[in-house]
Design goal:
Blueprint: H1 10-13, E1 21-23, E2 30-32, E3 46-48, E4 53-57, E5 70-72, E6 77-80, E7 94-96, E8 101-104, H2 108-111, E9 119-121, E10 126-130, E11 143-144, E12 150-152, H3 163-204, E13 213-218, E14 222-228, H4 239-245, E15 254-258, E16 261-266, E17 275-280, H5 287-300, E18 309-316, E19 322-329, H6 336-340, H7 355-374, E20 380-381, E21 390-392, E22 398-400, E23 407-408, H8 431-434, H9 441-457, H10 472-478, H11 501-519, H12 530-543
Parallel strand pairs: 1-3, 2-4, 3-5, 4-6, 5-7, 6-8, 7-9, 8-10, 9-11, 10-12
Antiparallel strand pairs: 13-14, 15-16, 16-17, 17-19, 18-19, 20-23, 21-22
Length: 549
C-alpha cells in the first residue's frame, strides 16, 4: 500500500506500508540516494539498486532496513566509507557493493554480528588497510575482494599481500628518504632558528602583554571568569560545515530535541567519521548559559565514561544570527533510553541488554559520577542524569553526556542554601529539590538510584502504574527482597542460563536492587556517596562471571 501521489518519488516510496522488496536495478537513476527512501516501514526481503549512476555516500539511515535478506548496490558511483549501520542487518544473507568508488578501512565491528551472511562482494572499490581476521572474513569462499589494491591480510585464506610486508616497505622507504633529506636541511635550519631567536628576544621586551580572551559566565561557580578561548585549542569548523554535515539541519538527521537545542547526526566532508552535533536554540531562555556551562565542563573533564567533544562552532549563521554548536563523536549504539524502551516503529527489533551488560553500564555511569563529585575541584553536579543522557559506544561502553544543566558547587557552604533553578526531569529529580533545598551531589545519587532501579525492572519512573503516591522506589521496596524476581525486566536477556537464575538473583540482582533503593531514599542524608556506590558496583562487576558478561 503506497501513497496516492502519482509521482513515484522517494517520499511516496517511503510511504509504501506493505512493500516487501524494492528493485530499481538497471535503470538510469543518478544523483544522491535520498534518505526519505528509508523513512517508512522497513523492507522485509531486500533492496536492489544495482547498475545505475547513483553517487555520494551510502546514507547511514539505510540501517533502518533492519532485517532485509539481500542488499545490491553494485555498479554505481557510490563513494565514502561503509556506514556502521550495516551492522544492523542481522538477518542479511547477501551483500553486493562491487564496482563503486567506496573507500576507507573495513571495520570488523560492521560485520562481526552478521552471522547469517552467505556472500559478501566488496570487489573493485578503493578499500584499504588490513582485512579483519574473524567473522565472515575467515571464510574465503564467501568473500570477494578483487580489485582493491590497497587491502592486505596477515592470514593466508585471502589472496592479498601481507600487511607486515607493506608496513616494512613503507618503513624502509621512509628511512632512506630521511637519510638523504635530514643532513641536507638540518644545518641551514639551525642557522635560521638561531637568527629568529635572536630577533625575538630583542622584540619581546617591547611587546605589550595581551592575548585573546573571552568572558565566560557560570552561575554557581564564580560571577565572571576570564578563561582562554576554547576554540583556540580545537579544529575550526564553520557554520557551512555544520549545515552541510546535517543536510541543512534536515529532520531526518535529527536524533533528539529539547527546548534548548537539538542533536543531529552527520559527517564533515573532510572527515570519514560520523559525528553528533548539538545545536543550541539560542532564542530559548537559558540556552546560552547551557552552552557556556557545557564549554566549561568540556574544558576541565578527562574521564573515559564522560562524553567528550571533538570541537565546537561559535559564529553567525547566514542571516547574521548568533549560532553555537558542540560537536561530539557519534555513539554508535545510541542512548540507554532506546535500549531500555525501544520505539517499535524506528528502533531495531530485539534490542536487549543482558544482566552482564547492565552491570557494566551502570558501573560506568557510577564511575563518571564519582569522578565529577570527588575527583575534580570544585565538585560538579550533573543535575539531569537519566537514560537518554547515557550514550553507548561501539563496545557498549557508557558515557554520560548533556551537561547543560550541570552546576559547580561553590566552596562557600553558605552559598548552597540559596534557591536555585533546577532543570531536571520529572521522575529523576530528587524530591529535596522540590522542597527548596540547594543543589548537592546527593541529588545526582537519587537520580542514579532511579536509573539503576529502571535498568533492573524495565519500568520508567513515570510509568502509568505509579499513581496515588506510588513511585518506582516504593514499588521496588514493596517487593524486596522475597519477590524481587517478579519485578525483574522480562526482556533481560539471560537465555541459556536458566539453571543459574536463583544464584544470579541472590548474588547480583538483589544486591543491585538494594543499592538502587538506598540511593533513591527520600532524605538526602540516607543516600550513600558515589564513591561507596562505585566501589560496591565494581565488586559486583568483578564477581560476575566473565563468560556470562
Amino acid at each position: 500500500m503506497c501513497s496516492s501521489d502519482p509521482r513515484l518519488g522517494p517520499n511516496s516510496l517511503g510511504q509504501c506500508l506493505q512493500l516487501l522488496q524494492l528493485n530499481l536495478s538497471s535503470n538510469s537513476l543518478d544523483g544522491f540516494l535520498p534518505e526519505e527512501l528509508f523513512a517508512g516501514p522497513p523492507l522485509s526481503l531486500g533492496l536492489d539498486l544495482s547498475h545505475n549512476n547513483l553517487i555520494g555516500d551510502i546514507p547511514w539511515i539505510i540501517g533502518n532496513l533492519g532485517h532485509i535478506i539481500f542488499l545490491k548496490v553494485s555498479n554505481n558511483l557510490f563513494s565514502g566509507g561503509l556506514p556502521f549501520t550495516f551492522g544492523y542487518f542481522l538477518s542479511i544473507q547477501y551483500i553486493n557493493l562491487s564496482r563503486n568508488n567506496l573507500t576507507g578501512k573495513i571495520s570488523p565491528e560492521v560485520f562481526e554480528n552478521l552471522t547469517m551472511l552467505e556472500q559478501l562482494d566488496l570487489s573493485y572499490n578503493n578499500f584499504e588497510g588490513p582485512i579483519p581476521a574473524n567473522g565472515v572474513f575467515a571464510n574465503s569462499t564467501i568473500v570477494h575482494l578483487d580489485g582493491n589494491n590497497r587491502l592486505c591480510s596477515d592470514f593466508s585464506m585471502l589472496a592479498l599481500p601481507p600487511c607486515v610486508g607493506i608496513s616494512d616497505n613503507k618503513t624502509m622507504n621512509l628511512v632512506a628518504f630521511l637519510a638523504i633529506v635530514v643532513p641536507t636541511i638540518s644545518v641551514p635550519f639551525l642557522v635560521l632558528l638561531f637568527c629568529l631567536l635572536t630577533v625575538w628576544k630583542k622584540t619581546e621586551v617591547h611587546r605589550p602583554n595581551w592575548r585573546r580572551e573571552e568572558t565566560c559566565i557560570f552561575p554557581q561557580t564564580r560571577d565572571v571568569e576570564i578563561c582562554p578561548s576554547y576554540q583556540e585549542t580545537l579544529k575550526k569548523v564553520s557554520y557551512g560545515d555544520v549545515a552541510k554535515a546535517t543536510n541543512w539541519f534536515s529532520p531526518v538527521h535529527r536524533i533528539s530535541s529539547t527546548p534548548t537545542g537539538s542533536v543531529y547526526v552527520g559527517r564533515f566532508k573532510f572527515d570519514n567519521d560520523l559525528i553528533a552535533i548539538k545545536v543550541f536554540n539560542l532564542k530559548e531562555r537559558g540556552a546560552h548559559d547551557s552552552y557556556l556551562t557545557e564549554c566549561e565542563v568540556q574544558r576541565i573533564i578527562r574521564h573515559r565514561n564522560i562524553l567528550k567533544s571533538v570541537t565546537l562552532c561559535s559564529t553567525l549563521d547566514t542571516e547574521n544570527n548568533e549560532f553555537k554548536a558542540l560537536i561530539f563523536q557519534f555513539m554508535a549504539n545510541g542512548s540507554l533510553e532506546r535500549w531500555l524502551h525501544p520505539n517499535r516503529l524506528t528502533d531495531r527489533p530485539m534490542r536487549t541488554l543482558s544482566l552482564g551488560q547492565r552491570i557494566c553500564i551502570v558501573t560506568d555511569v557510577a564511575s563518571a559520577l564519582d569522578y565529577l563529585h570527588n575527583q575534580i575541584t570544585p565538585p560538579l553536579v550533573h543535575c539531569d542524569l537519566k537514560p537518554s543522557n547515557v550514550l553507548l559506544d561501539y563496545d557498549m561502553t557508557a558515557r554520560v553526556g548533556d551537561f547543560g544543566s550541570a552546576k559547580f558547587l561553590s566552596q562557600d557552604p553558605s552559598s548552597l542554601k540559596h534557591s536555585v533553578s533546577i532543570q531536571g526531569t520529572i521522575g529523576y529529580l530528587a524530591p529535596d529539590y522540590g522542597m527548596g533545598c540547594g543543589i548537592s551531589t546527593r541529588g545526582d545519587v537519587y537520580s542514579f538510584g532511579v536509573l539503576l532501579l529502571e535498568m533492573i525492572t524495565g519500568k520508567r519512573p513515570t510509568d502509568e502504574m505509579f499513581v496515588d503516591g506510588l513511585n518506582l522506589h516504593n514499588f521496588a521496596d514493596s517487593m524486596f527482597p522475597d519477590r524481587v524476581s517478579e519485578i525483574v525486566d522480562p526482556h533481560m536477556a539471560h537465555e541459556g542460563h536458566q539453571l543459574f537464575t536463583e544464584l544470579w538473583m541472590q548474588s547480583y540482582i538483589i544486591p543491585l536492587v538494594a543499592l538502587g533503593l538506598s540511593c533513591s531514599m527520600g532524605s538526602p542524608k540516607g543516600r550513600p556517596g558515589m564513591q561507596d556506590v562505585c566501589a560496591k558496583l565494581c565488586a559486583i562487576k568483578e564477581a560476575f562471571p566473565e563468560s556470562h558478561g
